[in-house]
Amino acid sequence: MPVVFEKCAEDGTSFFLLNTPNSSYIISVLKNGIVSHSGWSRRIEKWSGNSAIWKTDRGVNLLPDLDPRNLSLDTMPQEYSTAGKSDFRPGAIELALNDGTHTLDLRYFSHDIIEEKPQLEGLPATYSVNSGEVETLALKLKDTKYDIFVTLFYAAWAERDVICRWVKIENKTDGKIKIEKVMSACIDFAGSDYKMLQMSGSWGRERKVYMRDLVPGTQSIESRRGSSSHHQNPFVALLAKDASEDSGEVFGFNFVYSGNFEARIDVDYMESARFSMGINPYNFSWNLEAGASFTAPEVVMVYSKDGLGAMSRTFHDLYRERLCRGQWKDKPRPIVINNWEATYFDFDEKKLCALADAAKDAGVEMFVLDDGWFGNRFDDRRALGDWVVNTQKLKGGLPYIVSEMKKRGLGFGLWVEPEMVSPESELYKAHPDWCIHIPGREMYLARTQLMLDLSRKEVTDYLFETLSGVFASADISYIKWDFNRYMTDAYSEGLETEQQQEVAHRYVLGLYSLLERLTAKFPHILFESCASGGGRFDPGILYYMPQIWTSDNTDALSRISIQAGTTLVYPPSAMSCHVSAVPNHQTGRITPLAQRAFTAMAGTYGYELDMTKLSKEEIVQIAEYSNFYKKIRSIVQSGDLYRLVSPWEKSDKVEKYAAWMNVSKDKSFAVVTVSWVYAEALAPKIVLKLKGLDGNADYKDLKSGKIYSAKELMYYGLLLANLWPGNASEQILLERV
Ligand code: DGJ
């Protein structure tokens, strides 16, 4: 069983041992009820209890009732540290109490071991299906003075190296309290000899991997933008100094939330590292009325003893199997053509049909009509909110264009950006108070648009009704849900003055409730999320929409780095990737078609270019790529990913090429992709050591017919002597014989 509870006789300490297949997480409860963290490591079968209490003679900040000389909260590792007592490090929780203080003294109250994973009300989270796959420890703490209860939840997975943590605060006093900070997870690591890995970037350069050694003081990432953002992904990993792609201890943390977050590591004077992750305390507080409770979102914690690669595969399996939901969760995802870079706003039904004719010949399965089909949306300065088809552009409306696509054997998808409103729109005229703004202050526009106030029920109800009408108006099987600005002036006309710091979180909750209702009402629709590219690529979104537009930057070389970073946490099935035109619209670079296609085949595949301008030969070539993808799509979308050479490993060699492979779960097929990043004359030979194959089997290269033993491929390597940089990339499909 993943959760074990035991009492240590000698000093009265009890402990919980949370076991996953390869890790153990230990919580100690001292006899005075203080809850201490005793470690998270490779699995230990037995725990001595010896170091349950860390003693340091500092002469100050003592625990008077236990050992007034040697015990200090300031040096003791804790499970969930509070403010105001003797721990001077940044705490996990801060409450403004009725007596004007912030001091909280949480002690063990009770515990429950639940034989499943309870769901988090109103929040996305991983879920259990089968009995025995998860055990959840609910560890209830109580303040020593007031009836304030804080329950720490730990869901330990029996067959995955995953522990999910979240927190619930209950106010059982007879007055209101204010939550000013609530981290969902907090772990005190004994030492600080780790590297911190983060994924940072911007629009068009999302999720670049950065690593640094921990140093005393604070190192942190955050978003204050109202969404998880392009700039910092809500993910951090701590790596042992010797850890790499395939070896060493790695601790990965991902926040299942799509709004403002903070992840920080504070290294103290004892050189221990405190990791914490949760809703960003910036401009956040929550009024907790008497009798009310608040649940903070989930943090997924993954342990790997075998480096980053194993960590990623654990995240991928968990998210594919127990985070994503709905009919599309395990279904092969269609190859799409999206008209955005082909036409931008300049289209009519004839142009779209011509594009569809070319796309059908190129092996495409779904036509996605992007921005510009509604209201008077002739550019990006107007009409958001007016979700009525523009019949000047689309004669016959959506039913006609859908039927035209059907004639060509294509499914139909539609772009929407429901969370926004343009000041120049019918919706804004009717409800100027429905946008997020501060009355009496100048409104800041971004892309000439405002955010709708999703913290208000009447707004989400309106969106539900309006979008339901659009989605049901024709046979729409795919929705691209866009989101193109960040939140400023966080204020809601629907809330009291003292609640205004709740707006950003209430917005996210409103979005989640809207998505829950729409995805339940339209289960056949494949929802793809987008936020100016990959500005909201997080597990919160994946709970509702199983794939996400990875980046607006479709340049093959840029994508190699963006996609490699993305796969650290998110499965290939979640990563939407398109082949686009050259010169690339974002970078101006020209890359070979093969390289663009092979790079896009790393995720869910599609096209985003004007195919009507391509020659017959090019369409035939593209059709071959589409057919190849159809052959490998189940391997890519539901197999295991092995990064062979990643762009962030800064060696001479690595800057020149990147390589990855996808292996089917039963190891009968593998597809290897190698791509030059930096072309050179007389390119060096590449010997690519493969991974993840069935070690006792032979594999056949389906193009050359050559047969290799798996051992040769993995230990000696695959020699790519003739991979001329001009071709830029190569894909090899292997079948076990
Ligand atoms: C931003 C998205 O990332 C693009 O793919 C496209 O849908 C535009 N918005 C449309 O306005």
| Architecture per CATH nomenclature, i.e. the level-2 architecture of the largest domain | Distorted Sandwich
CATH topology of the largest domain: Beta-galactosidase, Chain A, domain 5
Strand content: 25-35%
Distance, first to last CA: 39 Å
Structural class: alpha+beta
Amount of helix: 10-25%
Name of the CATH first level of the largest domain? Mainly Beta
Shape: globular
CATH superfamily of the largest domain: alpha-galactosidase from lactobacil brevis
Number of helices: 12
Radius of gyration: 27 Å
Task: Report the bound ligands by name, code or SMILES.
Answer: (2R,3S,4R,5S)-2-(hydroxymethyl)piperidine-3,4,5-triol
Strand count, sense and closure of the main sheet? 9 strands, antiparallel
Instruction: List the uncertain runs.
Output: none
Number of strands: 37
Mean pLDDT: 94
What's the arrangement of strands in the largest beta sheet?
A: 6-7-8-9-19-15-14-11-12
User: What is the number of independent domains?
Assistant: 3
Task: Lay out the secondary structure.
Elements: E1 3-7, E2 14-19, E3 23-29, E4 35-42, E5 93-96, E6 106-114, E7 134-143, E8 148-157, E9 162-171, E10 177-189, E11 194-200, E12 208-213, E13 217-223, E14 232-240, E15 250-255, E16 261-267, E17 273-279, E18 286-288, E19 293-304, H1 307-322, E20 336-338, H2 340-343, H3 349-361, E21 366-369, H4 397-407, E22 411-416, E23 420-421, H5 426-430, E24 450-451, H6 457-472, E25 478-481, H7 503-521, E26 526-529, H8 539-542, E27 547-549, H9 556-566, E28 575-580, H10 593-600, E29 604-608, H11 616-638, E30 640-645, E31 657-663, E32 669-676, E33 686-688, E34 698-701, E35 707-709, H12 710-716, E36 718-720, E37 729-736
Parallel strand pairs: 20-21, 20-29, 21-22, 22-25, 25-26, 26-27, 27-28, 28-29
Antiparallel strand pairs: 1-2, 2-3, 3-4, 5-10, 6-7, 7-8, 8-9, 9-19, 10-17, 10-18, 11-12, 11-14, 13-16, 14-15, 15-19, 16-17, 23-24, 30-31, 31-32, 32-37, 33-36, 34-35, 34-37
